[in-house]
Specification:
single chain; globular; 5 strands; five-stranded antiparallel sheet; 159 residues
């Protein structure tokens, strides 16, 4: 019997992690994504895109949805699909009105002086996620919402 590729093993089990809403937990998310990328044999560019987009999604859940309330949990789920990876980031925050969601996805000018001075309001995460991933969607859920990100896999040739 031919051994299964890592992505085929992930299809059957998936991965689920629940985190307190603390920015310090981003280090754990990064480590998890880096290890997952290596295990799946993702090329460097794909692995970096996945890490950046998923971390942005978790940051948004902690900062905006939960407003830094550590007692609220963020759940990260990862599954492999035919030809790619699916990431779901679930939070317990309020729904985002469609006009706000649409506006957040558009590029906007950034004053570099504001960023250097620490006055940058942020707000480029969703735009960035949409540039790095093939699909980005937000699904309402009772008691929160789920951010869904999908990425086609570009294996580095490892099985």
């Amino acid at each position: 019997m031919k051994p299964k590729r890592a992505s085929e093993r992930l299809v059957h089990g998936g991965l689920r992690v629940r985190l307190e809403s603390r920015l310090e937990n981003l280090r754990l998310v990064r480590t998890l994504l880096t290890s997952l990328g290596a295990w799946l044999g993702l090329d460097e560019e794909t692995g970096h895109a996945v890490e950046l987009a998923v971390v942005e999604g978790v940051v948004n859940a902690i900062r905006h949805a939960h407003q830094g309330r550590p007692e609220l949990e963020v759940e990260l789920r990862v599954t492999a699909t035919s030809g790619g990876l699916r990431f779901e980031i679930e939070d317990q925050g309020p729904a985002i009105p469609q006009p706000v969601w649409d506006a957040a996805a558009r590029p906007r000018e950034v004053d570099v002086d504001d960023v250097d001075a620490g006055d940058d309001p942020g707000g480029r995460g969703l735009f960035l996620m949409r540039q790095l991933m093939e699909h980005v969607a937000l699904r309402p859920k009772k008691g929160g919402k789920v951010l869904v990100l999908t990425k086609r896999m570009a294996p580095s040739g490892r099985q």
